[in-house]
Amino acid sequence: MRLLRHKRRVQRPLGYAVILFTIGDNTFAIGAAAVNEIQSLQELQPVGVTPRQFGKVRHTLTRDGRRYWVVDGNVHFGVMPTHSTRVLLLGPSPVALKVDGIVRMTEIGKVLPLPQAFQGDERNWYLGLALVDDTVVPLVNPEVFLSHYDLTSLEQSFPAAIATSDAARITA
Amino acid sequence: MNVAPTSSFVLFPLGKKRFALPAERVTELARMDTLHEFPSNTPLVNGVLVRRGEVVPVYDVAQVLAGQDAPTRKFYLIAKRQFGNADERTAIPVSGDCELANAELLPRTGDLAPYVQGLLSLPDEIVEVIDLEKLTPEEAR
Fold first, then answer.
1. Which of residues 71-110 of A touch B (CB under 8 A)?
2. ipTM of the predicted structure?
3. Which residue in A128, A159, B9, B36 has the fewest CB atoms around it within 10 Å?
4. Into which CATH architecture does domain A16-171 fall?
């Protein structure tokens, strides 16, 4: 008779893959599943003057025929202007986030709730807090950069700017 | 002979003055620790500490109680703030040693700020007892 031995499974913390990025002195985490692509700023197209409520949207970026509205991370989070070098293309909405740089991809084990003492916009900005290398990093909510209403309004305000960079690439 | 009921309070300094919190609201006195900051726009909340795996928000009331010239803070007084039915621990930076005192809570007088819950009459000073729930940045001195 053969004894069946159950392999002892190694218990690992449930990992949640995130991308760490910086804006100014601040490090943020965003779920890796929410990021479709990371790009440099070369293909950004200025949108001109946006209505006041969309002051954080100053550029678009066209990728595979799809226009992304680029949110300036400094304006969104109220951080003084810094030197941006990367754009995170998010999904499923056509929203991108301009940031200073990418730190790395990592896994976080646990997301701690934002304390109730925080009562401002940060309650929408963050899904919670994570500990990464003994540092508290806010986990960004990727769905609040622009609402569905914002996107519809932007599309209506700027209908002409269609896929210009893709068109230029095809022509070239 | 009637003796006035006394309660326990934690006295904490902020600059030249001392203030008090009801002792039952205070859980700990801690050394200055790494302040983790991230963008937020809640007035007076500067960031968080990590205490034994717990995230504790830092509520810097010195701007309200001691004004813009608030001295360097040396310790954190960790106290409970109420949000709905739940308590949450909050770190309050203070500028020196704290002291436990038993005293009668005297009723507040009309001219005091709304966050003053009452007064303690101690041998050399009158100390304001602070109601953290009523402390707002609009009350800044």
1. 77-79
2. 0.89
3. A159
4. Beta Barrel (2.40)
